[in-house]
Every structure is written in C-alpha cells, then in structure tokens.
Amino acid sequence: MISLTQVTMRYGGTVALxxxxxxxxxxxTLGLLGPNGAGKTTALRLLAxxxxxxxxxxxxxxxxxxxxxxxxxxxxGVLPEGTGLFDRLTVGENLALFAGLYGLGRESVQRALDATxxxxxxxxRVGSLSKGERQRVALARAVLHDPELLILDEPTSGLDPAAAxxxxxxxxxxxxxxRTVVLASHDMAEVEALCDRVAILDRGRLVACDxxxxxxxxx
Length: 219
Ligand code: ADP
Ligand code: ADP
Description:
It is a single chain. By secondary structure, the chain is of the alpha/beta class. The chain contains eight helices and nine strands. Helix 4 (106-115) packs across helix 5. One adenosine-5'-diphosphate binds next to strand 2 and helix 1.
C-alpha cells in the first residue's frame, strides 16, 4: 500500500527526514511515534502528496503521490494538523463544500457523518464545537469519499480522555472495515492501543519499527 525508500526531506538546512525506509501493507495500521520535530508531519505530508521528497522514493498504492496526486487523492483521506475545516461554516456546510470538490453527492455527507457519529452536529458552526467534536468532524471530512487509506496527523492531540476514546472507537471501526491507517502520535499508549506496528522517529531518523509489544519488550 505504501513504501518509502531512502526518503530524505529538507527544509532549507533542516533535515526533517533522513534516509527513511518504511512499508505499510494494505489493511494495516501504522503509528508514527516521536517527539515534536521528529518528522511525523513531514512523513504524512509526503504520503499525502503535499510535498516531494528531497531524495528517495515515495509510493502510495503504486503511485508517486507528488507527481500524480489525482490518482491517489481519490483513494486517500487526510486529517491534517489543525482540522482543515472552515470555522465560520456549519458542519453540514463544510462537508457539502468538500463533497462538491470531490464531485460527491449529499448521500456521501450523510454516510460520513453517520460513520463518525457527527450527524447531530450538522447544523452547528465549526467554530462553536469542542475540540473533540471538531476532530470528529475533521474525520468525517476525511472519509467523505470512503477512502482505502487514512492519513491522520495527531487525531487526538489535546483531547480529554473521553473524547480521545470516542475518536479511537471511530478509528477502530475504519480498521474493521479493512482500511489502511497511518497515524502520527506522541503518545505510546495511543499507538499501542490502535496500531499493528509502530515506527519510532527521532530527529528525522527511523530508529525502530515493530509491533508495539515487541518495542516495549526491548525497553
Ligand atoms: P513532527 O510532526 O514530528 O513534530 P515535523 O515533521 O513537523 O515533525 O518537523 C520535522 C523538522 O522539520 C523539525 O525540525 C521542524 O522544525 C522542521 N520543519 C517542519 N516544517 C517546516 C517548514 N515548513 N519549514 C522549516 N522547517 C520545518
Ligand atoms: P464493503 O466493504 O463491502 O463496501 P462496508 O460495510 O464496508 O461494505 O460498507 C458498506 C457501505 O457503507 C459502503 O458503500 C461504504 O461506502 C459505506 N460506509 C460504511 N462506513 C463508511 C465510512 N466510515 N465512511 C464512508 N462510507 C462508509
């Protein structure tokens, strides 16, 4: 589903990713774990085709997401850092707007709201929602086109435990439907609870990649 081969990414003189090799199989959930600045968001941006690597190869569903974004974006849903939502619009207006961009109908909006338990929020302005509700709606936006691959950037960052738990349940529902998930987190407990494998990044380098239990056994 995903393969990174010797991927290096730079912002000017800053090396954000340094020779990273990583594979993700279809149906698998991979966690990217690491402190702030480790390179998690950068890795997700490369997968989402939002930037090209400085060196190396990125392949998502057999496609280079930077050079052929249209071939992957229809099959991939992204929950970006922040939410990517418009605060002044209602939840329904936000989703209708994005559905329009994807060329999707109203039924896709309803389906995504139902799948994320956000239907009761339809008439609310996004700016008036709690952080947890907002993340839920951001997830609804990410699954509008029922993508095979979900890219989630710190989906529960800053949420209280109850809100995080309900978001985890939605992610589990997606996993149960066979979706591939790549999620960034700085919380070991979270990746342990949700992920088949965890890739640990430290200052742009991949320092370990294994099942959570195997990683814990080593420390
Ligand atoms: P994480 O998501 O793990 O916090 P990032 O991928 O955001 O890490 O950042 C990795 C490194 O790249 C950090 O040193 C960060 O300061 C740097 N970086 C990220 N985005 C930019 C940018 N747009 N311009 C310059 N440096 C950046
Ligand atoms: P299948 O995997 O055979 O399509 P599912 O039970 O996964 O069956 O889905 C049935 C229908 O419901 C599909 O058409 C799918 O588009 C829709 N659906 C279910 N859950 C979601 C979701 N989380 N996001 C978007 N669409 C969904």
